[in-house]
Write a structure and sequence with these properties.
Length: 336
Amino acid sequence: MKLLVTGAAGFIGHALAQKLCARGDEVVGIDNLNQYYDVGLKRARLAQLDDYPNFHFVRMDIADADELQGLFAQHGFERVLNMAAQAGVRYSLQNPRAYIDSNLVGFGNLLECCRNHATEHLVYASSSSVYGANRNMPFSTADNVDHPISLYAATKKANELMAHSYSHLYGIPSTGLRFFTVYGPWGRPDMSPILFADAIMQGKPIKLFNEGRHRRDFTYIDDIVAGVIACLDRVPEGNPDWSGMHPDPASSSAPWRIYNIGRGEPVDLVRYIELMEQALGRTTTRELLPAQPGDVEDTYADIASLTADTGYQPTVSIERGLQLFAAWYMDHYRKK
């Protein structure tokens, strides 16, 4: 297939583009290479794709409607995977405009392009953060998600609603994927794995917000990519059993679906750090801090519907995943 992957220099986007190219798809990747974090890391990810003649990179911002429309007109993408977004819960408290431009304006531009160019299927990144103030565990796509506690989460919830309206009005098949705490090689330096690894290797205290009383459904990058591709290959249709009298929040009479992608096994944050210390062969101290605004206390994915519809089954244990991450971290940062 001829595919567009947005956010191709990002953590998930680059891993996804690699796997799609390896299986023989023709992939155009776009990214604006913004300076939210180290652009050098983004360029190093893109360099991993240099070996694939079926990958073509274009530096572009999805917030630029005219450039995006021109790209669609030139390539005639069959399917689109939107991994581009302004990420980060805490940063949304400092720079809300970045989230409006990328996550709302940019996503709206993509929907318009899909409408104007008869895209077969739009798959897009949502987030477990949409569960917000919900305390029902495990988080289920049948749960209400009307109480986000960060602007980042609100924009992801908005993406799901925007996609539904386009699926309903124009018949564009769309699948939204709520990712749960993705980690692994080539991860973002503002996320906990690299922050913790840096502290461990430098002998500095690890900062634990909410005094470390968190559980996270850590999901290894390879499992995430496998789930995304399984969804990409399954174009949704309208749910014939959907009823407006008893609406299912995860499906519709339109060709629209929402899934969780996680491991389905939450891990205590303190245990996660202990396993990372073992993988890196060093230990350090903890600095216990109050909870941060916008942080969800626990995450735990109910992945039953994704497994039933696609056969998705995560395979990488937290122990194995952290060993693989630690090996990459030591190699990559030693070379810098």
